[in-house]
Amino acid sequence: MGKLTKLFEPIKIGTMEVKNRIVMPAMELGLAADDMVTDRFKAFYAERARGGAGLIVVGLAPTLYAGMFPPGGIGIYKDEFIPGLRDFVNLMHKYAAKVAVQISALQLLEKPDGSMEVVGPSNIGVERHANAPKPRPLTLDEIKRVVASYGDAALRAKKSGFDAVEINAIAGTGLISYFLSGHTNNRNDEYGGNIIKRARFLLECIESVKGAVGDDYPLLCRVSGADFMEGGNTLEDTKAVVPLMEKAGIHAINVSTGWHESPTPFIQMSIPRGNWIYLAEGVKDVVDIPIIGGTRINDPLLAEQILDCDRVDMVYAARALIADPEWPNKAKGGRFDEIRYCTACCACFDTVLEMRPVVCAVNARAGRELEYKIEPAKKHKKVFIVGGGPAGMEAARVAAMRGHHVTLADSKDQLGGQLLVAILPPHKEELGGLTRYLAGQMKKLGIAVELGQRVDIAVVQRAKPDAVIVATGATPIVPHIPGVDGENVVMALDVLTGKKEVGDNIVIVGGGMVGCEMAEFLVQKGKKVTIVEMLSKIGADIERANRWVVLGRLRQLGVRMEVNARVEEVTSQGVRVRRNGNLESFAGDTVVLAVGMQSDCSLAQELEGKVTELHIIGDSAKPGKIAQAMESAFAVARML
Ligand SMILES: Cc1cc2nc3c(=O)[nH]c(=O)nc-3n(C[C@H](O)[C@H](O)[C@H](O)COP(=O)(O)O)c2cc1C
Q1: How high is the mean pLDDT of the chain?
Q2: Fold of 6-353
Q3: N or C: which end of the chain has fewer CB within 10 A?
Q4: Which residues of the chain are in CATH 3.40.50.720 domains?
């Protein structure tokens, strides 16, 4: 495909003209401090504005109090925030991006003694937050106070120069969604009952905003297309409400997926790209204002296709723009192979849930734009990199961009390293995008790539490098267990790559991420699988956002999962384990080992003291995830 046309058509949202159809939606990323914008926050968004996004929505910004959410978000509940917000908006305008702030009252209210209380429409919590306090139902006076806070917050947004305000009505993150959803609202006054009555609170919030900022001030609302919660709103419910929102003066509707607490996965790698666009499309059927849709859209060609079929008017791309801030400009220039695609690994989501500032597995600069700059090197060096996996290629990319003369060598005849294997289990295809991007960069930056020859100390020394980077990766651990050298024992990687055959009844030793992926891979081939794990948890090293999804699939596929079971012996019939002091056996005709990786640092050890400058990165320094490999590569290459 050549030029994209639809994606780069301007559009009007009320009185606001947006230069293209790309929206970076609200994301709480942990980059602010004390509820105020910071230089770090500004640098992150300035890069996305410079990268060409038409509309950037920041927030969510609480209208009443902070708290409850991970720290590091912005607030809009006090006038003191206005100067900082104004500076931020001015910066964004330098890059011709429009900027909106998402506002939301959280489920918190201050008690007379100054402490905070969890509140809601009713005393119904959400099942997955079993330990959270049950909300206290709001009184009618309190509802008035919360509604007024939306008007106050919107006025602060207008005074700060924001081009628009977005009301958050989604995903269990704010009071509006609690009122809207039949899952959490069983009031029997004017704020409860059928979907129209449950929408009253939202409509009053809209009225409050319009009363404060006027009819012409662009106003968006983000709704869940459907809640995907038991007893929650369906797409039909949402379709009943949106015409009322349009009538109340909303200028565009941003349709997201369901509640965070839903048992349905939305954003994981296993969800097909564009899977949820039908929700926004359904909403578009019943209103005439612009509709924004998205989730799992990391490819501008798909975005173009969706717009071209008139399914929505604008597309949001959240994590895609964390992964590559220049996604819009690269797409506009037809430079698709230069896009660093989001793999939907959810590392960003996980770090924020862990109360840390955002991290991106494929973009080490995300959230670190101020310190992780790629600046020209003072002295151009000859850099020799051993290892063509993600760490080696990322180090080569950054070093070459800084002006160094880079050679990258790998004994394999293909670039990609562990990524070539990582894409083989079910639902992991997205990881292939990273290999394609990095390999493309090697070509574009003129990096000398030498493949398919043994790389030893002599090869390195012959190149006479000023600096050597070792990125030789890791090798699978073979545990010291009696019977492990038996003919019925194979390594997980050899099974994935097809080097080794397995029987019909498999015992996998090790229930970490590799063991779980192995299980799914084998079940898909019709095998019967038991995972034996010595820890108390299966998938302990899987990202929080993914673990429950993976475990759900394993359960559904009938994989037997045994924990707290330490393998003491492999026999020709399977494994013998010790659990709670007792010996037990699990039968299998093949035993697959997936007990972890160890650094391959033999070349690094040989080079120690024999080259002027030596760095060890990625798995060869410490086995970890892609995020750690990419970050360690970037950290070294930016300082060479
Ligand atoms: C770390 C993180 C924080 C988020 N915080 C918010 C938020 O505060 N408000 C909101 O409406 N959506 C929030 N979202 C959801 C995103 O706006 C978006 O809908 C979601 O990531 C799916 O889109 P994507 O597949 O393009 O990433 C968040 C997503 C992530 C990854």
Answers
A1: 95
A2: TIM Barrel (3.20.20)
A3: N
A4: 382-475+598-637
Between the alpha carbon of residue 437 and those of residues 268, 343, 374, 403, 415, the distances in Å are 20, 12, 18, 20, 11
**Residue 317 is which amino acid?**
A
Q: What residue spans in the chain does CATH classification 3.20.20.70 cover?
A: 6-353
Cβ-count burial 319-342 (b if 16+ within 10 Å, e if not): bbbbbbbbbbbbbbeeeeebbbbb
294 CB within 6 A, ligand 1: yes
Residue pLDDT, tens place only, 564-575 = 999 999 999 999
pLDDT, residue 111, reads 87
Question: Residue 439 CA to chain centroid, in angstroms?
Answer: 23
d(CA 147, CA 208): 6
Closest-lying ligand 1 atom to the alpha carbon of residue 59: 8
The whole model's pTM is what? 0.96
Structural domain 382-475+598-637, CATH architecture: 3-Layer(aba) Sandwich (3.40)
How many angstroms is it from 27 CA to the middle of ligand 1? Answer: 5
Q: How confident is the model at residue 71 (pLDDT cuts 50, 70, 90)?
A: confident
pLDDT in tens, 248-274: 999 999 999 988 888 899 999 999 999
Instruction: Tell me if residue 405 falls in helix, strand or coil.
Output: strand
Q: Quick one: CA dihedral 305, 224, 258, 627, positive or negative?
A: positive
Task: Identify the CATH assignment for 489-595 out of 3.40.190.170, 3.60.140.10, 3.10.450.50, 3.50.50.60.
Answer: 3.50.50.60
Locate the ligand 1 atom nearest the alpha carbon of residue 322 and give its number: 27
393 CA distance to ligand 1 middle (Å):
29
Among 23, 24, 27, say which to mutate for ligand 1: greatest number of ligand atoms within 8 Å of CB.
27
Query: Which residue's alpha carbon is at the smallest distance from atom 18 of ligand 1?
Result: 318
What pLDDT score was predicted for residue 129?
Answer: 59
Could you identify the atom of ligand 1 that is nearest to the CA of residue 267? Answer: 25
Q: Could you tell me the distance, in angstroms and rounded to a whole number, from the CA of residue 108 to the centre of ligand 1?
A: 21
User: Is the distance from the beta carbon of residue 256 to the nearest atom of ligand 1 less than 6 Å?
Assistant: yes
Does the pLDDT value for residue 234 go beyond 80? yes
pLDDT band at 343 (very low <50, low <70, confident <90, very high): very high
Ligand 1 atom with the smallest distance to the CA of 222 is 11
